[in-house]
Design goal:
The complex is a heterodimer of chains A (299) and B (333). With 299 residues, chain A is an all-alpha fold. Chain A is built from 13 helices and no strands. The chains are: A mainly alpha (299), B mainly alpha (333). Chains A and B meet through α7, α8, α9, α11 and α12 of A and α1, α6, α7, α10 and α11 of B.
Chain lengths: 299, 333
């Protein structure tokens, strides 16, 4: 009975004892579990992550094992996705590429999210001048489309894995800062914060212990969807030659390198492209589900 | 209304100053000596030194920044291209119409696909069309522009031989690039139209229109659409920025001589002033588009117009509300 009512109206609190035992995230996980599409996204994502981690064990060849005699071999038993212009196994390179792409996606988003959260927390908590300065900084970053900003930064810093992550993460800062600031503003004036002030808790303690847990849900959602954006931006940077340098396997640079052979050998671009698309799709599906699960009101 | 526009224009100044600072800073930390880049590696040290002096490269950071700003504001001077020795501003502006045309075609494609599909999906919720459209929009949203472009070339130029795969001379050449650029935005706009339409057609005034015997097509396309499109306009504005970024990739794939192609070529030849100039100009365009979208808002929605006109207090409240709405939208998108 209780279960049914909750399904129909997620906000109904007809049986308080049931809620006491569950944290916000256990409840969210319960809702997420019922969303088949989101779970499908999660499963694909986990498979991709495992593929990236265990690339050495899973890949039949190394990412730079060239065999010029066997250039452009069509997909066959030996090379499931065929070989590229240097005779490298595309399947193996995609597995190694998963490592790079996911690493960039998660690390760049993580850096952006941490920086954005800190800035947003300061802006929201201290208000007035601090708020003004930080938000104008965000305005400036947002006035430049994110891919453009990443290109400008990557061009200035030079190519390379870390520079690429840095370039992507800076463009992501404003959205996290805004999200965190907005949720802090809604929490800040509530009574439990006043109570914490009254018993003499420090600002840092209030932010970390009392405010932050209340802002976590929107940040998690933003991060999941943000990873997808970071991966696309990373692949785009590599595609125009600002990303990871050869011979490292990266999906964007594989596409870029294979582009000139597309007329004769479709598989050179087909599989790296499918890999990017699958990754982004799984992240989007999981992220959408997560948003619905963490915030039933938003739906 | 005019007052609001002026206020927004004034607010744009500090943001653009900030953007110029970021751009200058990036140029400042870029590796390589501009004087050497201009004169080539074989140049005499004395010559290089003279050029450094005349370009003001020996001055301090702030002095150089103020000169840079002064040149931009007074003369529209963004520096000199290392490769052609032409002013960056002329070089970028020559390419500007091409990029603008590409981005507009992209927006057009996105609107032509996104809005009708969104309306049909909403009016026939849970029908087969709705499900197919939802799945397609998810796929479209997950496709990076360059991958989409390559696929289109593979199908329409290589397999079917219908359309040219690169170049820029007639309208024919714009079809594939516009599709490439517009697809992912079409997906976003479709989702947006669908959800906002669903919300609107459940409102009382729609029931009133129906109960007085109004034809369903007029209810949907006249009564409902007008209100449903308001959030879509914001989405289009946001998408335009994405398209300006995306045009860099699209121009590279289809060899279209726009700002994006210029920037990518300049990155390869380490011609930083052109890269930074391109970023600056596109950021300015983006800011103006955003302003335009907000003003367009007022024309479409009289409620917002009255807020712009209202007392200062009202306006502040309205802006906060709008900001929240925009944040909600961004989250949804």
């Amino acid at each position: 009975m209780a279960e049914e009512t909750r399904k129909n109206n997620p906000n109904a609190v007809e049986d308080i004892s049931m809620y006491k035992k569950q944290s916000q995230f256990v409840q969210a996980w319960d809702r997420l579990r019922k969303n088949k599409v989101a779970i499908a996204g999660l499963v694909i994502l986990v498979i991709l992550i495992l593929g990236g981690i265990f690339a050495e064990q899973l890949a039949p060849y190394g990412y730079d094992d060239q065999d010029v005699m066997r250039r452009f071999t069509a997909p066959c038993r030996e090379f499931p996705f065929g070989t590229d212009n240097l005779g490298r196994c595309i399947y193996s390179r995609i597995l190694y590429g998963a490592r790079i792409s996911l690493l960039i996606g998660f690390v760049a988003t993580g850096m952006g999210a941490v920086a954005g959260t800190i800035l947003g927390a300061f802006a929201g908590y201290y208000g007035s001048k601090t708020d003004n300065i930080i938000m104008r900084f965000c305005d400036v970053l947002q006035a430049i489309p994110s891919l453009l900003l990443a290109i400008a930064i990557a061009a200035a810093l030079g190519s390379g894995l870390f520079n690429m992550m840095l370039a992507i993460s800076i463009g992501a800062i404003p959205r996290y800062a805004r999200t965190v600031r907005a949720s802090i503003l809604t929490v800040k004036d509530q009574e439990f914060i006043e109570a914490a002030h009254a018993i003499g808790a420090s600002d840092a303690r209030i932010i970390l212990k009392h405010i932050f847990p209340n802002c976590l849900a929107p940040i998690i959602v933003q991060v999941t969807l943000g990873v997808a954006g970071s991966i696309i931006n990373a692949a785009s940077l590599s595609f125009i030659g600002l990303g990871v340098q050869a011979p490292t396997a990266e999906w964007g640079s594989m596409l870029s390198a294979g582009r000139q052979y597309v007329r004769d050998y479709w598989f050179v671009v087909m599989f790296p492209g499918l890999a990017i698309m699958t990754t982004i799709l799984s992240l989007n599906l999981f992220g959408d589900g997560l948003r619905d699960a963490l915030d039933p009101k938003l739906k | 209304m005019l007052k609001y526009t002026l206020k927004r224009l004034l607010m744009m100044i500090p943001v653009l100053l900030g953007v110029s600072f970021v751009v200058f800073l990036l140029m400042y930390i870029s590796p390589g000596d501009p004087a050497k880049m201009i004169l080539g590696e074989m140049a005499e040290a004395q010559e290089v030194e003279a050029l450094r002096e005349s370009l003001g490269l020996n001055n301090g950071f702030w002095e150089r920044f103020f000169t840079y700003m002064k040149d931009i504001v007074l003369y529209g001077d963004l520096g000199i291209s290392y490769t052609t020795r032409e002013p960056v501003f002329t070089e970028v502006m020559e390419r500007f119409p091409v990029t603008l045309r590409l981005a507009s075609s992209g927006v057009l494609v996105a609107l032509l696909i996104g809005v009708p599909c969104g309306i049909i999906a909403a009016t026939r919720q849970y029908s087969i069309f709705d499900h197919v459209a939802t799945v397609l929009s998810l796929l479209g949203n997950s496709m990076p522009a360059f991958w989409m472009g390559i696929l289109l070339i593979l199908v329409f130029s290589v397999q079917l031989g219908l359309l040219p795969s690169s170049g820029y001379s007639s309208a024919e050449y714009m079809i594939l690039p516009a599709l490439t650029l517009g697809t992912s935005s079409a997906a976003v706009i479709m989702r947006m139209t669908r959800s906002s339409m669903l919300e609107v057609i459940r409102q009382d005034y729609i029931r009133t229109a129906r109960s007085k015997g109004q034809r369903e097509s007029i209810v949907i396309y006249f009564h409902a659409l007008k209100n449903a499109l308001i959030p879509v306009i914001t989405a289009v504005g946001l998408q335009f920025g994405m398209l300006l970024g995306g045009s860099i990739l699209t121009e590279t794939i289809f060899s279209i001589p726009g700002i994006g192609k210029l920037m990518v070529d300049s990155i390869k030849s380490r011609n930083y002033p052109v890269v930074q100039g391109g970023v600056l100009i596109l950021a300015v365009v983006f800011s103006f588009v955003n302003l335009g979208v907000d003003l367009l808002y007022a024309f479409v929605d009289p409620r917002i117009k009255s807020q712009y006109k209202g007392a200062k207090k009202n306006r502040k409240a309205a802006e906060e509300e709008q900001e929240e709405d925009e944040e909600d939208l961004e989250e949804e998108v």
